[in-house]
Amino acid sequence: MEEVEVTGFESDGIDLISPLSPEFDSRADALSPPEMSDIAKDAKPYVVIVSNKTSCNIVAFTMSLSNFEGKAMPNPLFYSYPPAAVEQQIFMAPNAVGSTGLDFGDRSEAGIPPGGQRLIGLGFSIPAMRPKFEAQPGVADWDDDRMWNWVVSTTREFVARIKSQGRGITGIRIKLDAVIFDDGLLIGPDTNDQLRRHLQGAVKARQNLYRKFVDSLDRGALVDELFSQPEEGANDFSDIFRLDAIGTVNVLRRRNGNDKIRQVLQQAILKEPFVIHRK
Questions:
Q1: What would the pLDDT profile of 77-104 be if each residue is shown by its tens digit?
Q2: Which one, 73, 85, 158, 233, has least CB within 10 Å?
């Protein structure tokens, strides 16, 4: 087994639990569905647990990933060229920002609550629970079981690629780079202002879309018309955030129906702007 060096923000109450820790396997079992916890244990050393010992919800963080040899870090999505030798991995839960009290569904990231932990794959995602995919009408063949089996098999393939690419690596370093809490407090270097820009962009895209839909409905627009508008492609991160926001609104519509969507979107609009700040 490769060596693993982990560096959290221990003095601020945020720890990283190494995959080589004696407690890791039992914690992985408790933090993910059985199929995923088995994959996570097989993925060692490319997994870590983030532990929140603070009194606030963690809504975003970045980790820097590197290895002892200075080689490119394994990544299942890279084929023809290598990624950087030091990579940044981002976790964000934009729907957890603000106290809206709204249920965004179990596929929405809820952050890491006070006293909570989260199992993180390096280069792949590990859901905290088996989600309900809420398949749309007309795609009955892709029911929850089939979707879940696809997610599990794809994740297992990703891990196999990562382990294959990692041959010859004797150790890896996992280091927290920045953390943002639900009150907007940011701690850590936040290299290249990456985490602040990404979370701010994701929250802004959602809030703009919620307001746009509520305003359109108040002016007499029909729900079906709003949701039938063609979606433009993604050319940069702002487009990605916009498309992600559209996906969130579609989920809220499926969960609540046309009759309640305006009320739900109004509830999703933050009463106060979300401002990311340092102490």
A1: 755 445 556 788 999 999 999 878 888 8
A2: 233
Q: At 277, list the tokens.
A: 């700040």
Q: pLDDT by residue (tens digit) across 99-139?
A: 788 888 766 788 999 999 999 999 899 999 988 776 555 66
Do residues 4 and 19 make contact, with C-beta atoms less than 8 angstroms apart?
A: yes
Strand 14-17 and strand 87-92: the pairing is unpaired
Q: Which amino acid is at 36?
A: M
Q: What is the dihedral of CA 33, 109, 41, 167, to 10 degrees?
A: 140
What is the C-alpha radius of gyration for the chain, rounded to an integer number of angstroms?
A: 20
- Paired with 51 in beta bridges are 15, 117
Q: Is the dihedral of CA 106, 225, 268, 120 positive or negative?
A: positive
- Cα–Cα distances in Å, from 227 out to 104, 165, 211? 18, 42, 14
- Integer Cα distance of 150 and 267 in angstroms: 34
Check residue 188 and report its DSSP letter. S
Phi-psi region of 63 (alpha: psi -120 to 50; beta: other; left: phi over 0): beta
Distance between CA 32 and CA 73 in Å, rounded? 24
Helix (H) or strand (E) holding 237: helix 237-256
User: How many other CB atoms sit within 10 Å of the CB of residue 245?
Assistant: 21
